[in-house]
Amino acid sequence: MTKQKRTPSTWHGTLLYNEPMARHTSWRAGGNADRFYKPTGINDLAEYLKTVPEDEPLYWVGLGSNLLVRDDGIRGTVICTSGVVNTIEERDGLIYVESGVSCAKTARFTARLGLVGAEFLSGIPGTMGGALAMNAGAFGGETWPLVARVETMNRYGERFVRKPDEYKVGYRHVEGPEGEWFIAAWLKLEHGDAEAGTLRIKELLAKRNESQPVQTLSCGSVFRNPEGNFAARLIEECGLKGACIGGASVSEKHANFIVNTGDATAKDIELLINKVRDTVAQQKGIKLEPEVHIIGEPRRGYPDGGHNA
């Protein structure tokens, strides 16, 4: 059972022990985290991190939409920013948005201001922290072309403001200063028509609802698209739509989605990811790279200790 620790005066968020990570991932599967901290804001987060032992493993989670936590859980501390590190506002001609704000909220907020270029964010089922960390994209748009600068924090609670040229950014990949996590960004957008922007978001969401199993328990796209091809097409051509392991199934609607049909374990999902990856490699000669992050401790029975994305 989850227990809440009495908070010392230096920080004021909520610290939980043995917290089920299935509550915090969109697959609704996986084990418990030793510690789970939800801050009251960025300043509180900095104060909390100052108290964390230097050798304590840290994991940062937003909406958990691109994450698989293995069944034996996480030895360490999970920092959850969703809904609490959540300021979004206009500042000096830029949009300041913190890492716990959802991508969809960012799209709606900017559209209402008559700003264009962020509509694609409405199709990303995560937070801006995750979008910054992986250069998330949808409908032909990507996160980092919008970025004017970012703010990061290290494990000691120290904060830094950095420019885009301090990062190596590619398709679903971002490299930057080691040991720092994104806590906010300033986005530069062009002025346009607010009504047209809102309509564009509605059109993109309708397209997404038509082509993706958005009402199911999934993480979104499991694999990155290989250059010049589409992961979903390759998976479908290999006859894998509907393939199941335990309660995990390759979606019949979109082959690059793996859904929890109701009782999937993290092991079921990971084994199915492995099966899809290996089958496509054997039949097509193409190695699919997972988009989803797989963390935590595997139970016995994982091949080779588990696939590490």
What does this structure look like?
This protein folds into 3 domains: 3-80, 2-Layer Sandwich (Uridine Diphospho-n-acetylenolpyruvylglucosamine Reductase, domain 2); 88-210, Uridine Diphospho-n-acetylenolpyruvylglucosamine Reductase, domain 3 (2-Layer Sandwich), CATH 3.30.465; 231-305, UDP-N-acetylenolpyruvoylglucosamine reductase, C-terminal domain (Uridine Diphospho-n-acetylenolpyruvylglucosamine Reductase, domain 1, Alpha-Beta Complex), CATH 3.90.78. 22% of the residues lie in helices and 27% in strands. The chain has 6 helices and 21 strands. It has helices at 42-49, 103-112, 128-134, 194-211, 231-237, 266-284; strands at 3-4, 14-20, 32-38, 58-61, 67-69, 74-80, 88-91, 94-98, 115-116, 137-138, 141-142, 147-154, 159-162, 168-170, 173-175, 180-187, 190-191, 244-245, 248-250, 258-260, 293-295. It has a 5-stranded mixed sheet with strand order 1-2-3-6-4, with no helix packed on it. A 5-stranded antiparallel sheet has the order 7-8-16-12-13, with helices on both faces. Helix 2 packs antiparallel against helix 4 (194-211). It starts with a strand and ends in a 14-residue tail after the last strand. Mean pLDDT is 93; it is low at 3-7 and 304-309.
